[in-house]
Amino acid sequence: MQKGFSENFLWGGAVAAHQVEGAWDVAGKGPSTADVMTAGANGVARKITKEVVPGENYPNHEAIDFYHHYKEDIQLFKELGLKAFRTSINWTRIFPKGDEETPNEAGLQFYDDLFDELLANGIEPVITLSHFEIPLHLYKEYGGFKNKRLIDFFVHYAKTVMTRYQNKVKYWMTFNEINNQADGQHALHTWTNSAMLFEAGDNAEELTFQAGLNELIASARVVKLGHEINPDFQIGCMMAYVPAYPYSCNPEDLMAAVKVMDRRFFYSDIHARGVVPNYAKKYWEEKGYHIELSPEEEADLAEGTVDYIGFSYYMSTAVTTLPDVKGDVITDFPGAKIVSNPYVSASDWGWQIDPVGLRYTLNTVYERYQLPLFIVENGFGAYDELVEGEVHDSYRIAYLQAHIEQMALAVNVDGVELVGYTPWGIIDLVSFGSGEMEKRYGMIYVDKDNQGNGSLKRLKKDSFAWYQKVIRTNGTEA
Ligand code: BGP
Q: Which residues form the active site (predicted)?
């Protein structure tokens, strides 16, 4: 028995438009970068194919067909007791190419209906504006967010939906896991929010900083604008927090960990404080990077700081400079490596399971910004076994339980201000990283496999009844 949470704590669940909706080309929707990602699956990383290639891009094309099943899914969410449901708006349902003036009414209507259905069932929508996809046209014609014109297109899109849904949605987030472009894995940027098209001779790191900054400017303008549309809006950022621990107490390991974390904090430092941090300016100077930021844009950053920090937490990692420890070299930090932590176990995908790391993260982020926090993703991707219509996912319950316990300590012992908790993939969905259906996170099972076969039937897993009780007892019986 542990101390619970405030009365209005938002117990919920999270998904993203392209990982659940399917219906990728109906009712006037245009193709997005997510629609041209290869299937991946079985350990093969996903790639972007500039055009739709029949058979190659199937996971997001049908996904779990939430577009046509949302009413029955919301009944299950209601039964589960959800108070909040996080999803994203698919930009290409609203602006099929991204650079149009006039929105697509059928796309706007779909989200009107979805939000009405949630509200009618007592569930608060929590909405991300861009969750790892942008219109394909903006990627191909403009090169993605390295191009400043994307700022205006994004602001126009945000203004359109924030105006339309001003009385239905209160909690917004601008860019999903905006800091996932920070790890020197520049190849990935073709398919995160910045979706950059690189050309020969481009300096990927410099352009990544520029694209990230352009997104931050767009986000700040949207925060300002959103507050004009409805002063009650709560507009947050969305970060992936993966704490990097020093592998040893060698002071060099500690400094390496600080530098790795600076790179990830860069985004929330600007979102929350409204200024470019000195460590970034110094780094750009040292590298001779020319990052464009006009005085007007600088003012936007300062005036458009976020109301809360939304973040995902799945795992922690460790960093070392010790030459004899094996690990993955970090290209941006010569001499430092990411290594596995011998004190924690890992999932089948190598994600290190570390519940205490969540309490640590809640503490460090709260100390850094003094803003309310919102855990908008946390969960355990696993292979589930369906036996006679049942899934006994005790491993998922154990993971979530341990994280909720640490969350309770952060709130009740450490005094962290926490708005809510929306575990990832409340219903099975397409894995973003691998393109697999069979890397499952849900408390609701969906009958579909990695090859795209299955009846799409929904079934409650054991974790369903467990989470129902957690919500009913407000976390005292997790
Ligand atoms: C986050 C993303 C989600 C989601 C999740 C799990 O990074 O915001 O979109 O997919 O991670 O990752 P994966 O699907 O690769 O298991």
A: 377
